[in-house]
Amino acid sequence: MLDNPTGYSDRLGTPGYGLPARLPYVRASLGARFVAYLLDILFIFGFTALLTVAITLIGVITFGLGWTLFAVLPASGILYSAITVGGAGQATWGMRMMGLRVVTPETGTRVDVITAGVHALLFYVAISTFLLWFVDMLFGFMRSDRRLGHDLLLGLAVVRAP
């Protein structure tokens, strides 16, 4: 009675009925992502201020040699995103406050630090140019899963945290 219909399980390569379940996730809204970004601007400002103080102290201790580290400050937003998204929390602090996290949609696994940094870099490149930003956002409005263009390029998804 409960035998498989002829040929279905053979074609799908699975025993019994149905396909193996993918990781269920709930897509993040674009509004929540925007508010998370606004919060992250504040956190990036604080992170940059801490880096400025630390580099200044290092520069004084090393008689000015450490002040060459001020070249890192323009990339502080990318560093912030790479450290937080690539870490155990899978999200920036703004994303955590909004209940979001970044995953690979096929497996639901964590994002490594390099991919998180490239994800942030692509986001900041897109947001710095109106045309790229518009195309990036157009992807989010057109797709049912609300993934933006830079998410699609890297195969990532921003989802609601469980």
Features:
mainly alpha; 162 residues; disordered N terminus; 2 strands; single chain; 54% helix; two-stranded antiparallel ribbon
What does the model show?
The structure is a single chain. The chain has 162 residues and is mainly α. It is built from seven helices and two strands. It has helices at 8-12, 30-61, 76-85, 93-97, 113-128, 130-142, 149-154, and strands at 100-103, 157-160. The protein has a two-stranded antiparallel sheet. Helix 3 packs across helix 5 (113-128) and helix 5 (113-128) crosses helix 6. The radius of gyration is 21 Å and the shape is elongated. It starts with 7 loop residues before the first helix and ends with a strand.
Concise synopsis of the structure shown:
By secondary structure, the protein is mainly alpha-helical. It is built from 7 helices and 2 strands, in the order ααααβαααβ.
How are the SSEs placed, and which strands pair?
Blueprint: H1 8-12, H2 30-61, H3 76-85, H4 93-97, E1 100-103, H5 113-128, H6 130-142, H7 149-154, E2 157-160
Antiparallel strand pairs: 1-2
